[in-house]
Protein 1
Amino acid sequence: MIINFIVQAMLRFLFIVQFTNASLPRLPAMTALEVYPHMTLTMLQQHFTDHFPNLQLELVRSDGTPVAGSKTMDELAGYPTHCCFVIDGDMPVAELEANFRTCFGVAVRVNRWTGYAWHDTDEARQWTLDHHNRQAKKSRRHTLLQ
């Protein structure tokens, strides 16, 4: 029983390592954000804002209310995940949402500045994070000119 558990855990770990290292390209540190199990929500949101200054990242509960605090991704999942992935500007919002759901079992919402307020990106989930960030930057610039 214990040996079976250990073998399953090792296979899961090898799969995650293989998935993470083989299918995701390694990008320079300035253009990619690594999400890992021991990363806190606060740290994740700060790094996300550093990479995409015109976007906000919110983790949300099943009832749609935002999650706040400094819990780690594993703590939010409620179990050790051993899962990590890379966020870069070419990633569509829908893929980002799927990665958080698959790895940590949590929902995520990306909000974009529209000139006067933050709005979710539900209507354009196929757009990349860079595209949303550029659109929000244009809105911010337009707002400053008025």
Protein 2
Amino acid sequence: MTKSSKPMPLMLCINALLLGVLVFLELADGQGTVQHADAAPPRGIPNAAEQRQRIADRLDTLSSTIESMQKTLKSGNTKINITNMSDLESRTASNAERDIADTTARITLNTVRAQLELYRMRNGTYPSTLAALYDEEHPEHDGISYLRSKPVPPPGYEFMYDATAGAFSEAGHPRW
């Protein structure tokens, strides 16, 4: 034997030992990796009949609950108790005020934009200021009153006019 062949029996022993450990683990486990690879996946829904029965029971319960609610409503024996009326009134009022302000701002924006476009079509360019649309004394006024008066934004809003683009918008809502 040469010096280079001495490690060979040692490597063979180590390989044999490792192979023995793998075989032992495979046999001791009972569910070896080979068995897992060959196992077929489960088919269908486990306990499908039980699940269907639970769903049917829930639907029956819901149906009976809805029927009893319908009977109560039809009989007229329903009582409604509102406990936070003052909160509801204040929220409703503030929502209504905000909706009115939003609507007013949008209507004003759309009206002024339409009149700006009409002015541009008649004169070939947008006015340098909005005053040309309503102020007869303004030098750009062309004899037509496009607006009755200066557009006034609702409280909490601020209108902006860009003469170069003819853009009339609200500061907080530039996309309006």
Protein 3
Amino acid sequence: MLDSAPTPVNIVRQQDELLFRNILFERPINRLRARNITLLAGRHAKLKQIHDAYQLINIMNHHSRLIAAHALRTRDVPADVFLKPDIKNELHFANTEQVMEIVNDSAFVIMGLELEISSKYQILVEKVISSTQTPILATNSLLPIVKTSPGLLKNHKGVFVLDTKSLIRLANMANLAVSLKAGAGINNKLSVIRLLADSLSWPVVCYETSQVISCNPAQSGRFGVTNFKTTNKLEVETMVVAILSCLLADSRLWQHDFLERSLTAAFLLRQVTKTNNSSLDKKLQAVLEKYQ
């Protein structure tokens, strides 16, 4: 039974002084080195989240590619592909091959924004993961699909970006013995994050409305922690998945300096949340112009 974080623990706290300037300094400032970031959105995905994530990726000088549920086709969604039902096979989408082409041409695929729990999505996600090498950024809504196919992510590269509730859920799905010690504070969360990262060999990011914590299994025992103030959890999720996927896409060696890149993403998020008088994309643009 796990009661406290293993030792030694090294916490790197990112506040208002940018710790890893090279991450922003060396990244592309024009579209010549832009890569594709693919978003997979289910029919219950909120339109604002879709548009915000799409715009944030573009502001970060990468290309947004959007694969959206067919039900969103009348909702002013800038999708490259709307998933069409296959009238000959109700368990598949008619344009799966087009989806595969987009994913294969992407640096990262975000799975996803409110994915549906259905056989069609299960089969699509399994095909994407088993048939491509594109790294996955796995969100809360991917967990039901992972639960149905326990070994799905075993031989694939990717990152978990989860809230605390989903973090505990994933630990339970992985049959990891986790107990939270009363009064342990942040050490409780560090323990679970480290256990998951080490056991699944994937970096883990956990977010809430006041904090982002990250851990890289390649640097076990070293955590990134960034605090901020906001009440909009959906915007936090949107910023983390969009900004982090872009910073990871900047380098093909992202697994080696994941902690530095995740801390830099959290730094940008912290700066954006300091003002509330503009849209997310405009606030991020202003922050990038200041620090890049």
Protein 4
Amino acid sequence: MIRMFLCKKYFKYQNGMGIILKLYEVVMNFKNFEVTPLGSAVLSITPTNNLLVSNIGSSGIDGVMVNVANHTSYNVYFNEIPAIANGGVLKIASLGKNAIHQTATTNESLTWYDPVTEKVNIGFNMYLMPKNYNLFGKLNGVTVFEFEEENPVYETPQPGIFWVVVGAIATVVIAGVAVYTALKPCHTNIVDKEFWPNGHLRREITTTIHDPLPYEIIVKGQTYLIDNWGIKYTNEFPELGELPLVYDNSALLISGYNLSSFEITNIV
């Protein structure tokens, strides 16, 4: 069942930049998740019951917001996105909210076509990453590769811009155009928490996974056949002292540049 209603929304990033949703915009319930159009995007349901996000222009802010509050993990399944091979860009940003209702971007990935290499690149915004993170790939549940990487911009102040500069995006995976355009990618985000005996948060482990059908990717110059790859990192907190200001999952922003449209087939 698709439920629609009208609402007035305003969303603000931690650095002061924001996306303003249209006044009295249509909010839909898709697969039991509230979804709201961003920028000039239009949401509709296809005859196959997919969520169509259309009218994706060149502003960089057109897309959809998925309400993932109270979810420690979620999976978003896409249909093929062939427009990326023609110069389109897909950005997926996870947003969190803390105990005093501040919101901030906690994770951000971009997928784009590089005309020089004629490959599709997938990278992450390093300004949002901790000092170290793991990059891994699996096939049939068996680890194919795992690298511990160091964040090159860990101590560099983040610029106050909305659409992140390319220099802040570290390419971690490269795929052939024909291979990528045939995929129906899945974006998964998982946050696991461990606590000290006194109840204080001890560590927070974040895993972001891309989980398509088996395909070949290039990592650090080597080609691997995988069906599951992603990044994983841990934030550690002391047992004593002030409680950390932790950001729990709040929303997922999926936006694009010159994609025209994209389809989401499921959210779980």
